[in-house]
Amino acid sequence: MRRSPTRRLLRPLAALAVAGTLLSLTPATAPTAEAAVTAGNTATVFYFTKTRNWAQYNLHYAPDGGAWTAVPGVAMEAACTDWVKRTVDLGSASGLQATFNNGSGTWDNNGGANYALGTGTVTVKDGVVAHSDPCADTGTPAPNSATVYYSTEALGWSTANIHYAPAGGSWTTVPGVGMQAACAGWWKQTIGLGSATSLKAAFNNGNGTWDNNNGADYAVPTGTSTVKNRTVTANAQDPCAAAPPDTRAPTAPTGLTARADGVSVVLNWQPSTDDRAVTGYQVVRTGGSGGSVVTSVGSTVFTDTGLAENTAYTYTVRAVDAAGNVSAASASAQATTGVKPADPAPGSPLGTDPRKDPIYFVLTARFHDGDATNNRGGSQHVKSGNAAQDDPMFRGDFKGLVEKLDYIKALGFSAVWITPVVLNRSDYDYHGYHGWDFYKVDPRLESAGASYQDLIDAAHAKGMKIYQDVVYNHSSRWGAKGLFTPTVYGVRDSQWSWYYDEKQPGFEYDGLTVDPKTGKSYYNGDLWSTAELAGNTCLNWGKPTGGKSAEGYTLYNCQWPSPTSGMFPKALYHQCWIGNWEGEDARSCWLHEDLADFNTENATVQGYLIGAYDKYIDMGVDGFRVDTAVHIPRTTWNRRFLPAIQERVAQRHGAEAARNFFVFGEVAAFVNDKWNRGSVNHSAQFFTWKERKEYDADDAKASLEMYAYEQGLGPAGQPTSTNAFLQGNSYHTPDHSRFSGMNIIDMRMHMNFGDAQNAFSNGKDSDDSVNDATYNVVYVDSHDYGPNKSSERYAGGTDAWAENMSLMWTFRGIPTLYYGSEIEFQAGKKIDCGPTCPLAATGRAYYGDHLAGSVTAAGFSKVASASGAVATTLDQPLVKHLQRLNQIRRAVPALQMGQYSTEGISGGMAFKRRYTAAGTDSFALVTVSGGATYTGIPNGTYVDAVTGDVRTVTNGSLTVAAPGKGNLRVYVLGGTGKVGADGPYLR
Length: 987
Prior knowledge:
Residues 1-30 form the signal peptide. By secondary structure, this protein is an alpha+beta fold. The chain contains 16 helices and 52 strands.
């Protein structure tokens, strides 16, 4: 359903949507904008001297919109102990920029950002700006007083003021009284009330951002009160008082299991409880020649690797809390290792900033066939029409991908996103989203000398990353091997004998091996029974349903798994169908009949999945693309899965690798709204944030509490970020302290890429609600949808593709291309029609015919040699366009990692970007297709990376003529010249 986009708010208003609080620009008692800015404004600036101990103090300042004082500024005068001050006339300005110095070359300029100060009384103490007179005599509180503690933990404010009025009295002058820092996240002020017994209050950060309780203000009684997350607690305990010592140990872990996997052992246990919080676990191993080994872990799953072959090990686990109290040991669990697998030693991720790496997305089984012996058509080979096309669904493989890594590198891509690799089991499972054995790589993808490890190692040798698609939300309809597999009622009568295979003792399904009795690789004899099992929970086992199959065959109860049949245990799998895709059930019910929905709030399920994906982290993959992320509560991601990923990468590959291990989630929202039909829990940006409060220790209860709390706050109550935005022309260090660990696919740009201008406008409108939108994965279409939820591959034409690419490769985010789009492969074809039509007629057609021949890359975007069909492919106009775009992006750091701004810029798709870190300062002006004028920019020499044109700016302004559709201009301050050769669009 298409919905019109919400009206974009101006940034001063949008900036007021602060975490945990619904804010408005003007509280009921705050001044109007007109009253706040009047002629004759002054500011009395107090500066703290104790930590500086300078002999002299000068204030160097500029009223907002005005000129700076001559260096070193104006002298400040003594105010009181440890403070100097200066009152300055601001005229009509509503604030000032300021720095301080000792008159002899030593400066405090707020780390290069200067201090932004308002009017009235302002204090600057050790980098913190507040609004109170530090030299005022506060006197003795009146007989009635109120001590107010205010929490800014969820707001990110660096100071807090209380603007108040005693009952029946007058309000303080805006911004009110500066509160004193009490402890981390809390500010305190004691207020004399005279004869009044309460007060009305609103809070602000001194720079125009208010919390006035949604316009109702806060009613605060006498005594001690706390105000946190819009809740007033009267007669409260001092939140900063020292907590009594914690002497109670957590409960002992229960349910410890140990399962050997070669020379590794996977451990899983139920979480312990504590009167405060469990912070970790100690795993104790005995056995072998190493004696007793203790390992500290943060989750309820641990994979012990590098053990001796054919050796028995015993494990126990203890829980630990923040005070260091240790629980009693769990019951022990034993496991005996097998033989060391013959696979190569695990690799290591490249560990560099993921924003440097444009992504090429392939369906491995449909990309290039390097080994015909592992091709498999599956149970739908004939029905789908694939047999008639001689096109088995499992056709491409890792060997084929390794052989064509140079093709991808020659396009200029340095990261490859591949579809899931785990062993799948469904009727049509080539795409990989029906996991059966999460601990085993699907043999239909591997070959001798071309294992998954070989692919990872081969990519890394070429400087290319591998991003693995992973599924935490569901398994195949037949469950997950090693966790739970339902046994269905499969009667082998004259109708169904073609489907239900005879049991073959000792034969195990692996998707590849052919059962010699039936000649099928899609053997299912291990899944069914005609005799009712002991402990069966499925209702009406084996009785006819009264319905018929499409072929006219009798259908039986418990013949096909479903959430409501009782075939799956409630502890491990959810028991319902999704009814409302923007409701709570979207996170706790089945998506489809062949996707059995994990109960991800269960510790056993969590352990199974964490243990499985630890294996691939150990192999050295560079990141995870997370399928169906929106269908798991954010609390579960933030408590369990995301910390487990970080912990494992850091443990195996180091802290730097963990920081750059790229996790990006699919949070599918098929509307043009900034917030998905107003539901924050179902919006992509929501998953980039940590939780803002504590919830129940039970994950299932916590998910419901979080859902209700965040839905109650709504879009206006969500946190905001400036991490993607320049401050004027300046780059600032991003604040990732509240980052969850999950980045996102930019669904809003994706939905609007029918037109590049529309994608640009919608994309930047959402960026203040994403923790850091410079990490957004941006694509036009994919294996699921085209723009505007189209079910066809994008068919806007070559010029439109070129324009989209020019925007994607220069705007914030990580450009991503679905395989074949570089030649408009299958444009306008239905992306997926299941087994009702041949794959060759869809957007998931086999691409290998276009890659036939040989290709060698001389570097990124550079072809050393090519012959055959692949040479023709590499000669197409969009390929040339991509190669040049990748060259330019790789040469200009601002286009990779820079923050951006559109302030002072006229033009359609025009913006400026800057990246300043680690000795690099890269500043670029970009316009796509249309002309633009840039004002207020730094003076200097700018060189266009596209044409080599040189412009010298002396008045802070630069005008660029329209380069034409799909073309662009990238004027780089201090640029070195033209990058690459002219092509069909960039010239």
